[in-house]
Design a protein that fits this description.
binds glycine, alpha/beta, globular, 359 residues, seven-stranded mixed sheet, single chain
């Protein structure tokens, strides 16, 4: 069992990692929500039949009145339409400012329900109960919540820290291999940017079974790295950008294939390999690093390369939220386990990508 603190001034909260913790959700929520009477539980069609009843019963036993909204599973639900639907459900339930929203599910549920919590009644408390690996190691921690617009992903959002994050490693047993490995890209990312020993441990694990044998340690390590980064740069103006390693090129891959062919994790995996290659060409990253990341990515059934036309890079990076103007902040590795932000002229970046991928 692991307990971690995200020590933000005035908004500190705990992340609790424990087998079977969903059954204790009610008592644990009660501790951080002493005045709440109502909880708006948001989940999706995949998660509801697996864990909905267990969580609801626990919350009701702790004296909460619970209303459940079940959204369709999938990225399409991170929409203004679903957001409005949640607002309507919360209002029909007569949620008040002392009540709270509980997000039970993966990243889509957490981001959508989190943004609804951040904005309804000018903001109500939020509890995150992430059930996928990606949500447990990344999206449920750190307060980024958002919905998508037709113009791009996560374009309407907020920083809205939860009051509590509860994660049960046993939830990961019900994930398909594809969804599990999708999350492994973010897990590998932590090793790449902050901890080469952790990277080696993941290589030693050798696959899903090996990771599951050490899952509490893996979740704890990822969440403690994320908590530390968020503590130092909650608003993503500096250090937090390191968490975007592999993401700038990853977004180009996702967008080039209309978010249909590759999952986020698959795109990030190929993006990390490409970013390591870029770093090597710029003599920032030691030679051989991209090969080590390639091996790790293969080990977790993630793609080591995604081909994409130069216009796709130009379209995404030209509009990328992280890089205004002629330059872009790229996250590159000084060595495996240590990342830094490098300002790069976009034209130079496109030329290097052309050299690497021959287009
Ligand atoms: N997923 C990146 C961040 O939370 O900043």
């Amino acid at each position: 069992m692991g307990k971690l603190n995200v020590p933000l001034p005035g908004r500190a909260y705990e992340i609790q990692i424990e087998h079977g913790i969903l059954k204790q959700a009610g008592d644990l929520c009660r501790k951080v929500l002493p005045k709440a009477r109502k909880l708006a539980l948001v989940t999706d069609h995949h998660v509801e039949p697996l864990y909905g009843n267990m969580v609801r019963q626990s919350l009701k036993k702790a004296g909460f009145s619970v209303h459940t909204t079940i959204i369709p599973a999938g990225e399409a639900s991170k929409s203004m339409t679903q957001l409005e639907h949640l607002y309507e459900e919360f209002m029909a339930f007569e949620l008040t400012r002392t009540d709270a929203v509980v997000a039970l599910g993966g990243g889509v549920v957490g981001d959508l329900a989190g943004f609804a919590a951040a904005t309804i009644l000018r903001g109500v408390d939020l509890i995150q109960i992430p059930t996928t690996l990606l949500a447990q190691v990344d999206s449920s921690v750190g307060g980024k919540v958002a919905v998508d617009l037709p113009a791009g992903k996560n374009l309407v959002g907020a920083f809205w820290q939860p009051k509590l994050v509860l994660m049960d490693p046993a939830c990961l047993n019900t994930l398909s291999d594809a969804v599990f490995y999708d999350g492994m890209a973010e897990v590998l990312k932590y090793g790449c940017i902050k901890d080469s020993d952790f990277f080696r441990l993941l290589m030693d694990c050798g696959g899903r079974q090996g990771v599951m044998k050490r899952i509490e340690e893996v979740l704890y390590t990822c969440c403690s790295m994320k908590a530390e980064v968020v503590r130092m740069d909650e608003r993503d103006t500096g250090l937090r950008m390191l968490l975007n390693f592999g993401h700038t090129l990853g977004h180009a891959y996702e967008q080039a294939y209309h978010y249909e062919t590759y999952t986020h994790g698959q795109a990030v995996a190929a993006g990390m390999v490409a970013a390591a290659e870029l770093g090597e060409r710029l003599s920032i990253t030691p030679a051989g690093t991209s090969e080590r990341i390639r091996a790790a990515v293969r080990c977790y059934e993630l793609p080591e390369r995604i081909d994409c036309p130069m216009e796709a890079y130009q379209n995404t990076i030209g509009l990328d939220k992280k890089g205004a103007g002629l330059e872009i902040n790229m996250i590159l590795l000084e060595q495996l386990g240590r990342a830094k932000i490098v300002k790069l002229e976009k034209q130079r970046l496109f030329a290097l990508l052309g050299e690497i991928y021959g287009s």
